[in-house]
Recover the amino acids of this structure.
């Protein structure tokens, strides 16, 4: 399932790696695209939206939707 999140606080490549690692730990089959300049994280995963949102928030980022 395709999910799109607005994520605040991503400022560098390390931020992208931290979010990607957290999501892949949750779902190794997930396909993740991050556009830091637009504050967007796109995830293709079968996991529920709230679970994906929590994985990003647990890394210290604010998820707007």
């Amino acid at each position: 399932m395709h999910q799109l999140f607005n994520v605040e606080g991503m400022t560098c490549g390390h931020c992208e790696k931290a979010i990607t690692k957290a999501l892949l730990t949750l779902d190794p089959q997930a396909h993740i695209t991050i556009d830091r300049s637009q504050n967007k994280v796109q995830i293709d995963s079968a996991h529920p939206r709230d679970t994906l949102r929590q994985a990003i928030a647990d890394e210290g980022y604010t998820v707007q939707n």
User: Anything to note?
Assistant: The radius of gyration is 10 Å. The chain has a mean pLDDT of 96. The chain is about 35% helix and 30% strand. Residues 2-63 form a domain with the Alpha-Beta Plaits fold (CATH 3.30.70.100).
